[in-house]
Structures are given as structure tokens and as C-alpha cells.
Automatic annotation (TrEMBL):
Phylogenetic placement of the source organism: Bacteria, Bacillati, Actinomycetota, Actinomycetes, Mycobacteriales
Annotated source species: Mycolicibacterium helvum
Domain of life, per lineage: Bacteria
A Pfam family: COX3
Family: Belongs to the cytochrome c oxidase subunit 3 family.
The protein's name in its UniProt record: Probable cytochrome c oxidase subunit 3
Membrane-spanning ranges: 17-37, 57-75, 87-104, 124-150, 170-188
Heme-copper oxidase subunit III family profile domain residues: 16-189
GO cellular component, one term: plasma membrane
Amino acid sequence: MTADADTGRRIPGAPSMWFFVVGDLIIFGFYFVAYMYYRGQDHVLFLQSQARLNLDIGAVNTVLLITSSLFVALGTSAARVGKRADAIRLFGVGLAFGAAFPLLKVFEYVPEILGGVTPGTNLFFMYYFVMTGLHLCHVLLGLVIIGFVIRNLRATATPDIALVETGATYWHMVDLVWLVLFALLYLMR
């Protein structure tokens, strides 16, 4: 944690997590820029391919991740003020909402793949599967991290708040990346 000596304000979580988060955002940023470039090169192909996506599942996944992040933020606040039981419960709810995301991705991916749509189908689907697949890996890692946060909250009367904040920081990054992916892949016309 980095603190400003004059104001007492600090950046929540471990600096190493912030390094990781910024690095991930840069990597995803490169994907976003490349996607936009190629979309501009073949707008019709991207629109036709985008029309195959299941907007309903994408929207539900967005609500799930936003809701999960809300509970993680509330859990972090509860942990900061010493309300361990509330923090455990709130992180548990956040974990449950977050765990629904990969389940819905399976329902989205399987019909496409069984229908012959793969990353090799065209450039849109290459970006779609690579970016959402990479994001899915981040979601799964985030769920593990939230599990460690819950374990930390349960294990001791004085939980490691830096660990709680670090886990929350990662989870919010996962949410932010999905919001951009949802806008780019599902909504942008």
C-alpha cells in the first residue's frame, strides 16, 4: 500500500497487483486497438459476424459481473471496518455472481463451436474467441483470488486488509475489461 503522508490517502491493495492490472489493461488495450483497426477494414464482415452473437447472454454476463463487483466492493468496505462476517457473506455473494459468468460463457461458446464457428472462421471470430477466452481465464483466476480473500477473512480475527483490497482490485479490473469487450463485441455497430 502506498500512502500519501500529508492526507492519509493511499492506493488500495498491493503495488505488485497494480503493476499486473496496468500491464493487463495495456495488453487488452492493444487487442482493442487492433480489433478496431480490422473492424474498420471490413465493417460488413464484422457486423454480419457480430449478429451471430447471443446479445442476451452477453447482457446477462455484464449484469452478473457488475453485480459481483458491487458485492466485492461492499465486502471490502465491510472488511475495512472490521465487519468480518458481513465481509465473508458479501464476498461469497460476489463469488457466486462471478461464478455464473463462466457457466454462461459455456452456453454461448458451445452452440457456436458446434455450428462450425471457431477462431478460424474469420477475423471477427478470431478476436471474439481470443479476447473473450483471455478474459474468461482472468475471470477464473479472479474467482480463485476471491476464494483466497474469503479464506483469509475466515482464518483470522484480524484479516489482512491489503489482501482483501488486492483481490478486489483484480476483480474490478476483470469487470472493467468485460465492459469494454461487451461494448466492442456485442453493442458497437
